[in-house]
Amino acid sequence: MAKPNHDDYFIVKAHENGVNVIGLTRGKDTRFHHSEKLDKGEVMVVQFTEHTSAVKVRGKAEIITPFGTVETEKGQP
Ligand code: TRP
């Protein structure tokens, strides 16, 4: 496994109440290990770590990364 780069980080800004920032485990088993709920206007600064290799964002939010900014979109109702 490549050594995790602890300098990797990004920012999640919630555009509605109840946005979930969900951390997924690094390694053989990929599973949720933490879910953080943000309310509208709240910001979370997130790092990738030896425990966290991926993050899922659920809800309307802006995700600011070193390589650009993306916004989540509404899925099927
Ligand atoms: N204990 C987790 C870790 O060290 C904390 C964490 C880091 C986290 N990045 C995250 C939790 C992203 C949720 C989403 O890996």
From TrEMBL:
NCBIfam families per UniProt: PRK13251.1 (NF009724)
Signal peptide as annotated in the record: none
Quaternary structure and partners: Oligomer of 11 identical subunits arranged in doughnut-like structure.
Stored InterPro entries: MtrB (IPR000824), Trp_RNA-bd_attenuator-like_dom (IPR016031), Trp_RNA-bd_attenuator_dom (IPR023558)
Lineage: Bacteria, Bacillati, Bacillota, Bacilli, Bacillales
Gene3D superfamilies per the UniProt record, alphabetical: TRAP-like
GO MF annotation, one: RNA binding
Protein family according to the UniProt entry: Belongs to the MtrB family.
Organism of provenance: Marininema halotolerans
Protein name: Transcription attenuation protein MtrB
Alphabetized UniProt keyword annotations: RNA-binding, Transcription, Transcription regulation
Tryptophan RNA-binding attenuator protein domain ranges (all copies): 6-73
BP term (GO), one: regulation of DNA-templated transcription
